[in-house]
Amino acid sequence: MSERKEDIMDASVPNAGRMYDYLLGGHHNFEVDRQAADQLIKLLPFAPKSSRLQRWCLQDIAEELVVRRGFDTIIDFASGLPTQDHFHTRVPEGTTVIYSDYDPVVVEYAHDILGDIPNVYFFEADARRPEEVLDRPEVKDILGDKRDVALVHWGVSLFFTDEELAHVAQVLYDWAGDKSCWTYHAHQADANPNDPAVIKVLKIYEQTGTPLHIRSLEEHRELIQPWHPGEEGFISLLEWHGLDQSEMGQEDRKVFGPGGAGYGTYLVK
Amino acid sequence: MVVKGVVQSLSTHLNEVHLTTELGRTLRQDFLSNSLPISPRRADQISQEVSAAFLEFLGSEDEEAARTCGQRLAAEGLGHRSILTMTETLRQVCWESDNPVTLSPAAGRYVTAVLEGYMASREASLLQEQTRTMHAFQRAQKRQDQ
After folding, report:
1. Which chain B residues are within 8 Å of A25, Cβ to Cβ?
2. Rounded CA separation A110/A163 (Å)
3. Contact criterion met (CB < 8 Å) for A9 and B76
4. By CB count within 10 A, which of A119, A226, B41, B58 is most buried?
5. What is the ipTM of this complex?
6. Backbone phi, then psi, for B39, in 5-degree steps?
7. Sign of the CA dihedral running A164, A170, A175, A179
8. How many CB atoms lie within 10 A of CB A188?
């Protein structure tokens, strides 16, 4: 991933976050992002649907964490824009939601969207280094001694190297209380990295400065240790939404794997 | 000009359950193939809301309420293909009802108002997004320069 803020903010080169927004049907993107995403769609026609499968989960995650599991604090990494389908719109008043993203433009835009909504915060931080959020003085003030919280990395593990993912898992494990939950998306797990179309897509993302790291579900399991899935285990995103593989064509399944967009799980200590 | 009393009785010619089912079916057909950021679980709720709003319209002919319904659907993120197919389904159900001669024109008035509200809301949202994007870039750049 590009370290330079100037590169992240450069509107003349495609940006992975803005491409994702376009794939979702959003308008927070520019022509250069749409062109790159259109190339991606030509190679992988299921990509917009896969992106939706991923995004739709946010509402369910909010309900699961706050309503069913009783968390009153969600800390989300690589949040993207906090639009109307994001966590803070789905949780009861009084729930603390801490969003973060490494893109300075997203951070500024997010502050504009969120305004003065109480208990909802947005910080600039890199999801590969969760300590950038957890060690912030403002976050320490917000949380106090609280460590039993809901942590979320959704739709982002595809952009992490193995070392980065292992680092994230360990930092979160060391920081979090025993009753914490880490909602994790094994992003595009079991996609086929050797498919010729996927190889071309990997090159597109290299040009954005955010290369992709496709791995199997088993590799995800190894890297996220010592966290482990709760009783539900890993759920394919198709199954998550009550859909079946008839939503995917044969070619789509060969490329994306049976999950449609990978697998989600609620990790526990 | 339609007499309110006549319109009020129109809702009895329309099966709300059938309408809701058809709207839900239409929404679910499109949800993966169009710009629908709303989760498929919301499809049933949306179809119930639209169905109830239409029946309310048959009694009140309140076009402003119909426009508000359209605005709300846009604000929630309903895609343009979804709103068009839903409104088409609504018209179709009215056409196939046992009183198409009066239900269909009412459906036409309702759909027009809903789409007006929807398009106005989408346009306002896009303009707001443009301004916010510009300001976000300016502020981010200023922070970087400091």
Report:
1. 34-37, 79
2. 29
3. no
4. B58
5. 0.78
6. -65, 145
7. positive
8. 27
Q: What is the 3-state secondary structure (H, E, C) of A210-228?
A: CCCCCCCHHHHHHHCCCCE
**Confidence class for position A25, pLDDT limits 50, 70, 90:** confident
Mean pLDDT of chain A: 92
Kindly state the DSSP code that residue A67 receives in the 8-state scheme: I
A73-77/A96-101 β-pairing: parallel
Q: Tokens for A200, please give them.
A: 């071309």
Q: How far apart are CA B21 and CA B18, in angstroms?
A: 5
Helix, strand or coil, per DSSP, at residue B81:
helix
3-state DSSP assignment of residue A183:
strand
Non-local CB neighbours of B42 within 8 Å, separated by 6+ positions = A59, B76
Instruction: Look up residue A228 and give its amino acid.
Output: H
A33 vs B76, which has greater pLDDT?
A: A33
pLDDT band at A4 (very low <50, low <70, confident <90, very high): low
Question: Mean pLDDT across the stretch A163-192?
Answer: 96
Tokens 């070392």 -> residue: A163
Show residues of chain A in contact with B33, CB under 8 Å. 49
In this structure, is the dihedral angle defined by the CA atoms of residues B43, B44, B50 and B54, taken in order, positive or negative? positive
Tally DSSP H helices, then E strands, for chain A: 12, 8
Contact A177, A143 (CB under 8 A): no
Interface test with A, best of B27, B29, B39 (most A CBs within 10 A): B39
Residue A148 CB contacts under 8 Å (≥ 6 apart), including other chains: A71, A176, A177, A178, A179, A180
